[in-house]
Amino acid sequence: MYGMKITRIFTALSTLLIVSSAGAQIGLQSGLEFNAKPNRCVALRKGQTCYQRVLLRFKAPETGNYCLLVEDRAEPVHCWSNVTFGRYRYEVESSKNVKFYLHNSEGRVAETDVSIAWVYKNRSSRRTSWRIF
Amino acid sequence: MKNVIVLVTALLASQGLQAADIARDIRNDEPGNESFLELGFGFFAGQLPLVGFNDQEAEDSGDLQLSIHIGLQARLEYRGFFAEIIEDSFSDITLGYNAYATDEMGIDIVATTMFDDIERDEYIGFESVTDREGDISLGVRSNHYFGDNQVQLELLRDVGGEHEGVVAAAQFGRKFQYRNWNLHGLAGVRYFSKRVIQHYFNVSDEESSATLTAYKADDGFLPTLQIGATLPINEKWIFRTGAEYSLLPKSVSDSPLAQGDDMYTVQAGFYRVFQSG
User: Fold this and answer.
1) Which backbone phi and psi does B75 adopt, to 5 degrees?
2) Residue among B150, B178, B180 with most chain A CBs within 10 A, to mutate
3) Where are the domains of chain A?
4) Tens digits of per-residue pLDDT, B149-178?
5) Which member of A67, B21, B87, B94 has the lowest number of beta carbons within 10 Å of its beta carbon?
6) What is the distance in angstroms between the Cα of A63 and the nearest Cα belonging to chain B?
7) What confidence tens digit (pLDDT) does each residue in A66-87 have?
8) What is the ipTM of this complex?
């Protein structure tokens, strides 16, 4: 009895954790799920390039042809034909947030992103002169 | 005087701290000028064959020491004045004033403690050796940045009146980034004038015994190599590891107060980062 309750709590917590670590998605088409996991990449110092392998997943309500695009790149990263779901591993290498878009024959149907964060967020500003107090 | 410095540093630390020792800059991919506090825990392994410096009896001195340690490094800067405690640095606590800074270089006036009080009379065979007071040195430190490389020069003189010796150091560091790992290498040499080494490693005629011969030291150089890596775990925690190897000056290793001619440390730990602003 208690075991089942604990299992349910763990399941709920795990779901919450999974949802919170997946990229916030903007579904432009009803019923379509599209996210990145993990959705955050952390480098040491603000401005550094951050490296993170992310898993991009989508699940569509109807079969179709879909393509994955990354912001600032004209060509699709990957395309699927006649599917309702797809997954793709992408190597993030960026010093700014990376946006991903899911397109079908009608255009953009969803988007998600991976945010870049740093431990040390302040860049020092150095002066250019002598200082006497 | 030393107590005053400790008190002032503690007060500054309580407000949130900052860094610019090369050991910090090169590891953290940034020239100083920020307030931070890193507090963590980890393991330490090392060998320091100097009785009085290592909490070991002479027969064990030089054996590998292993420990779990609480780590702290921090820096606070306010209007050019700063206080810093950097774990990988030769100095314990440094107070200073940043007199000049550009993107290419910085010049600091610093007051620092390099050696603590050394008490050897509680160790077997060293009962006759008198205590040596720690030093307080005043001097200048300059940092020079060339892309991913950094050079630090230091010139310090004891002003606490304990030995009035001079210490000069030149260190070269290079940093790399491999994926989210921040790697660095540091090579340097530290010169200690005769007065410094004599203060800590001489054995006077009065201190000498059947097992401890009298010894008068000369000046010497301490070459050091250091490598390290820092990995962010998340926005608040980092993993830090490093190793350091130094060859003791011959004038130190020849002293009957020394039990070896080199020293090394290896450490790794997890640190919580606090940063102002």
Assistant:
1) -155, 140
2) B180
3) 2-120
4) 999 999 999 998 889 999 999 999 999 999
5) A67
6) 38
7) 999 999 898 999 999 999 999 9
8) 0.79
